[in-house]
Amino acid sequence: MSLKANLQANPISIAAIVIDLDGTLLHTAPELAESANRMLRDMGRAPASQELLMSYIGNGIHWLVKRALTGDMHAEPDAALFDQALPIFEKHYTELLLESRPFPNVVAGLDAMKAAGFRLGCITNKVERYTTPLLKGIDLAHYFEIVLAGDTLPEKKPHPMPLLHAAKFFGCPIEQLLLVGDSLSDAQAARAATCPIICVPYGYNHGEPVETLDIDAVIPDLMGVLPLIKRA
Ligand SMILES: O=C(O)COP(=O)(O)O
Ligand SMILES: [Mg+2]
Asked: pTM above 0.80?
């Protein structure tokens, strides 16, 4: 039996649901990739494909800029080059930020989870200065009792700290906190925290299918969450 079928037969007891932002709630890749390409252009460097730049998303904007500069997932660019590039990226991304749109069934899924009595939070690696205006601007902020951005706490995903912090905030055992995400950082954070995790397949997992991740189920979109869980 597939993990998903297994969960359908035995729904997990959940008190609160925390949802990832980039690649799960919002399709931010076009604006992130365009900002990276405008940065490369301003610096007299060659542009990269949207597909390649998309594969660099998931560990925050610093890593996106570093990867765009080096063309490598892990390499550190020259520090002075990075210091020059970051504000250029930030200027462009600030301009494009609010052009991002929710993925299909995000609003319907959030409404359904809320109506079913689940408490909701958002946990992202995006920094607060983009996360807060984005959630407000796209009119999603009102769904979430807590928003933990990439720089809200000393550690971000794949570290378990934001998930442990959210469970404490909701006053529930970590096993009753569900993470809905799209990428390796989400899977690693959830496993490290020991909370269940479900992923959507349409997001940004560094170009790899989410089926390769150590997760509890894959759902087509946020409407797929409720059939797999029950109220704790
Ligand atoms: O900003 C990123 O790199 C990824 O952000 P996410 O954690 O919301 O997917
Ligand atoms: Mg994501």
From this structure: yes
User: 189-207 as b/e, with b when 16 or more CB fall inside 10 Å?
Assistant: bbbebebbbbbbeebbbee
Q: Is 72 annotated as a binding residue?
A: no
Domains of the chain, CATH where assigned: 3-27+102-231 (3.40.50.1000), 29-99 (1.10.150)
Instruction: Specify whether the CB–CB gap between 127 and 60 falls below 8 A.
Output: yes
Atom number of ligand 1 nearest to Cα 185: 7
Is 182 part of any known ligand binding site? yes
**pLDDT tens-digit readout, 180-201:** 999 999 999 999 999 999 999 9
Q: Please say whether the beta carbons of 179 and 173 come within 8 A.
A: no
The alpha carbon of 52 and the centre of ligand 1 are apart by a number of angstroms equal to 16
